[in-house]
Amino acid sequence: MSMSMTRRQFNLMAGAALLAGPRGGLSRAGTKAEARDISLILAPSNLGLSPNEGGAQPGTWRAPQVLIDAGLARAIGAAEVVRLERPVYEPGAQSGTRIRNGPAIRAFSLQLAERVRDSARQHRFPVVIGGDCSVLLGSLYGLRLAGGRGLVHIDAHSDFSHPGNYDSMKVLGAAAGMDLALASGRGEPLLTTWPVTGVPLAGDGDIIQVGERAAGTVAFMGYHGDLPRTDITQFSTQSVLAEGIEVAARRIIAKLEGRGLDRAWLHVDLDVLDQAVMPAVDAPGSPGFNFAQLSGLIAALCASGRIAGADFTIYDPERDPEGRYARPLVQCIAEGLRPPAPDKT
């Protein structure tokens, strides 16, 4: 998700020990042939987005219910469905912050984190359906509270806007365009400092960004030229398409293994799909993945046993008035999350 123009070092050992706590401890997410009990968490937020032209609210808050109506819970075999209340959207600036809906995003993130933490501690696999990309913060915080660590960020935009690379006094920030920056500890304390943690939600070395379609362009370097100078691992859309999904997945999994990450969070912004197959997102574009490529990538990562939960964001049903894309999305998500049948040979 892009933001209209819109380092801290991570103390890994201390942070992990602090967050695990006496009840900490996620079980490893699973293996290729291992079934997962899925907690489906519906997070109907549009707080992280700017208003549409004419001042209308973005429609991403409707996505969870539309996907439920299209059969998502049954398709992924959800053991439970947890519904969060839709938060109130305020389009204008608010006192004490230069992030639109900043206080509401924090409150909603704390609620979401509780649900993700509880699901993970019950040895279930939390699947959060947004909403906009700001739901990553609560999801990742919940994972940390349950003892997990690490982030695979699949998104056609790096979402790395922060006061170090844009003028926050001139631009009212949209959290959906800065979620990766916020998760890595860059930005206002309102959305980077969380109870108990004392460290960023994810250290740079524990983040893998996959799918940036503008990587290396003049525009990208002008806005996010600081990103390539971090320890965040990057795989552009073009590189993934060139080497193939299987090779890219092996490289991502090798990075997770090398960092000792076996309980990482997976964030999927559905604008990583090419606009030819998925125009009903906040910022459609090309190049991108097709449904089979995205579900194949998700499936490979989940089958590695190194992913402990996932969120899916930015589908906007108001950009899909005929409902053409809900069922293909449900199938894509289900094929990515559904464990393969055990090999009987």
Briefly say what this structure is.
The protein is an alpha/beta fold and 345 residues long. It has helices at residues 12-20, 63-69, 72-76, 102-121, 135-145, 179-183, 218-224, 237-243, 245-258, 291-303, 326-337; strands spanning 38-43, 78-83, 125-130, 151-154, 207-210, 233-235, 264-269, 307-313.
How would you describe this protein?
With 345 residues, the protein is α/β, with parallel strands linked by helices. It has a single domain (37-337), classed as Arginase, Chain A (3-Layer(aba) Sandwich), CATH 3.40.800. It has eleven helices and eight strands. The protein has helices at residues 12-20, 63-69, 72-76, 102-121, 135-145, 179-183, 218-224, 237-243, 245-258, 291-303, 326-337, and strands at residues 38-43, 78-83, 125-130, 151-154, 207-210, 233-235, 264-269, 307-313. The chain has an eight-stranded parallel β-sheet with strand order 2-1-3-8-7-4-5-6, with helices on both faces. The longest helix has 20 residues, at 102-121. The radius of gyration is 18 Å and the shape is globular.
Write the layout of secondary structure elements.
Blueprint: H1 12-20, E1 38-43, H2 63-69, H3 72-76, E2 78-83, H4 102-121, E3 125-130, H5 135-145, E4 151-154, H6 179-183, E5 207-210, H7 218-224, E6 233-235, H8 237-243, H9 245-258, E7 264-269, H10 291-303, E8 307-313, H11 326-337
Parallel strand pairs: 1-2, 1-3, 3-8, 4-5, 4-7, 5-6, 7-8
Taken from the alpha-carbon principal axes, the silhouette is: globular
The total count of strands amounts to 8
- Written as H for each helix and E for each strand, in order along the chain, the element string is HEHHEHEHEHEHEHHEHEH
Strand-pairing-aware structural class: alpha/beta
Q: How far apart, in Å, are the first and last alpha carbons? A: 43 Å
How much of the sequence is in beta strands?
Answer: 5-15%
The tally of domains stands at: 1
CATH superfamily: Ureohydrolase domain
Helix segment tally? 11
Average of pLDDT:
89
Q: Percent helix among the residues? A: 25-40%
- CATH architecture label: 3-Layer(aba) Sandwich
Biggest sheet character: 8 strands, parallel
Q: Which CATH top level class fits?
A: Alpha Beta
Radius of gyration: 18 Å
> Reading side by side through the largest sheet, how are the strands ordered?
2-1-3-8-7-4-5-6
- The third-level CATH topology is Arginase, Chain A
Low-confidence stretches: 2-34
